[in-house]
Amino acid sequence: MKTAIVTDSTAYIPKDIREKYNIHMLPLSVIFGDEVYSEEVDLTAEAFYEELKVQKELPTTSQPPIGEFVKLFKQLGKENDAIISVHLSSGISGTYQGAVTAGEMVDGVKVYPFDSEISCMVQGFYALEAAEMAELEKPAEEIVARLNEMKKSIRAYFMVDDLTNLQRGGRLSGAQAFVGGLLQIKPILCFEDKLIVPFEKIRTRKKALNRVFELFDEDASLGVPLRAVLIHGNVEIEAKQLKAELEQKYPHVEFMLSYFGPVIGTHLGEGAIGLGWYKK
């Protein structure tokens, strides 16, 4: 059985890794005024954060058109028996629902839309795992079962420097953003029931990062094989240093480095740091 793996741009899987594992990517869009950019295609994370500094208004974001899903699914259906389409949380985007709708419109291939209930490279973990199994020609149903099993151990926490963008973008309530800004709190956020919610409110950036690492240690200290990713919002030097420290402390963990790209960066802003992981 031949299965194709699809994800969207918010997984932020590096192009070389997507090509290596034959993962197909549909981009979301970022709109600055009248300019529409497809993230990971004609707008890099670096260029996005530079543009963010000079723009007065926060950009908006949009999901891939249904037609793009249908076009890709039809193309993949010519050479595959099934398609597993992994997408960012349905609680913050309609992208997953787009895959569901498009899957119902395509004949000759079985489409399995998968709601990661999260985003960024943690979402990418699902696509990578699926691609690795697809290479071994595992049945699509078995791959989906593994992805659902992964959900039980996946954890991710992220710290933002400023709640303003999340509040303005409607991804966090105004009251929470107001309290965070007033008290100069560096909140730790997580995904819960498909939504971005406050996990803990901490006073300083250093203490917030240390708290995230404490949460990671609860699993990493058990010695079981983990795959983890450190994610940053245009603070690569800091992220690389933190990753090196974690690698030294946890040699049994496979660490990756990733970033909050344009769509997610629109809501989290510059300076955000996240850590996600799951049991291999």
UniProtKB/TrEMBL annotation:
One of its GO terms (molecular function) is lipid binding. PROSITE patterns: DEGV (PS51482). Signal peptide: none annotated. The keyword Cell membrane does not apply. Keywords: Lipid-binding. PANTHER family: DEGV DOMAIN-CONTAINING PROTEIN DR_1986-RELATED, FATTY ACID-BINDING PROTEIN TM_1468. This is DegV family protein. It comes from Fredinandcohnia quinoae. The lineage of its organism: Bacteria, Bacillati, Bacillota, Bacilli, Bacillales.
